[in-house]
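Make up an example, fold above all:
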Amino acid sequence: MGSTKYIFVTGGVVSSLGKGIVAASLGRLLRARGAKVSIQKFDPYINVDPGTMSPFQHGEVFVTDDGAETDLDLGHYERFIDTNLTRLNNVTAGRIYQDVIAKERRGDYLGATVQTIPHITDEIKNRIMEATHQLSPDFLIIEVGGTVGDIEGLPFLEAIRQFRYDVGFKNTCFIHVTLVPYLKASGEVKTKPSQHSVNTLRSIGIQPDILVCRTERPLGKGERLKLAQFTNVAPEAVIESIDMPILYEVPLVLEKEGLATQVLERLNLTLPEPNLTSWEAMVQQVKQPVTNLKIALAGKYTGLSDAYLSVIEALKHAGYSEGASVEIRWINTEDCVDDETSAALLSGVDAIVVPGGFGNRGIEGKINAVKYARTHNIPFLGLCLGMQVSVIEYARNVAQLTRASSAEFEPKGDQPVVALMEDQKNLADKGGTMRLGQYPCHLLKNTKAAEAYGTDVVMERHRHRYEINNEYIDILTQAGLIFSGTSPDRSLMEIIELPNHPWFVACQFHPEFKSRPDNPHPLFKGLVKATVALKQKTQATGSASPAVSP
């Protein structure tokens, strides 16, 4: 197609508008036309990356193949455009300022006074060009985090304003995502907040080419014309983005609204008609489930669903492939104080997932949730910390290591079946120092894991400091635990499973990061497939699988 075209996505009125979904959906529509697409996220916060931020504040930390800890929007990007992203795709103000200060300390600026303009803005523009040169996309979509008017976002907006002049108007397109609220009391859709938002954007020199209007009610012709008139946007470039019950239907809705068409017209490009057949088939499958599954998500950050965003989406993806809708039952493991309470909370679920996390809060509850799944033959999947607590539970209740724990929770414990990784010892900094990114995992033949993957070696993404202590492998194996996935040199245990259970599998890595709506991750698919089969068997026979002894 030639030189890269740049599409900038900004947001106004309120946060959490779904700019990331709009950017990801546009990426899908351009990919469906045969273009190579990549997406960058600009985050204005001063943290170098979200790796040290609380999940309650920022949601999950998404990890790329090359080990970058990034904003959760990169998960949306990967799932929609089906492309593995890198550390180039997430840029924070913290990283920008850190690098500029490092250059100043080295004397790179030759004694100049270091200022926001040009030094900070130039560094931001350099990140766009770095992604351009290394990724070579036809389209680079850049989402600017935050809301227009935020102080911390001003350097990024100034940088993209300058960038349009640097590369030329013909190579850039500006999309502004804004809220058009509906006032129930008056029965009216109000355009004034969007007008003010665009005025704020224009006051710093950016005129949007396209307006994407987030709304819960359809926009009438009058509202569209009013928005066009007062924002200086062409009427046909006022795009409605109405609330949708199915996330993955958004690209199809935006295609009907003409979003990609307007972008291509702005950039004076002609591309083939989009091939959305497989995506449409997937959405249709979502709309017609044949069964419903209640899956418990037993975690410690259940107060914010975004803390487990990729896990939830991976469960849904697996459900789509098996004709099942997935209903999440949120279980705060701090409430699972004993076997009786855990049984009451988990009663009636079809499967249990114990996800990752850090620290000892809620750990005993996680262990109790694992025990309930194991002893009641309920399909189970453990992720990262979920694998570690699964090993602790098995060690205590089956292998007779009654004081088994993790060195993370009990540094002076005398049965540390989970220990700090050797390369994690003596580290002072917390940020960016874990085992991060993609590593190979070798699978043991004739196991559930090998059957699910259909291969002998897989690559999976990690984010952890602790591992299964190899000193206890023989004891656990003799007690019946199968280590079905390991690092190539067998120094790291990557997957465990139980043989006589419908589906009891746990992994040290984060498989949720590699799941796609039209290509679910094998371990999540294995969980859902086993759950559907068990539910059908139970319905046919009228009885559940018998519980086993602790």
Q: What stands out?
A: The chain has a mean pLDDT of 92.
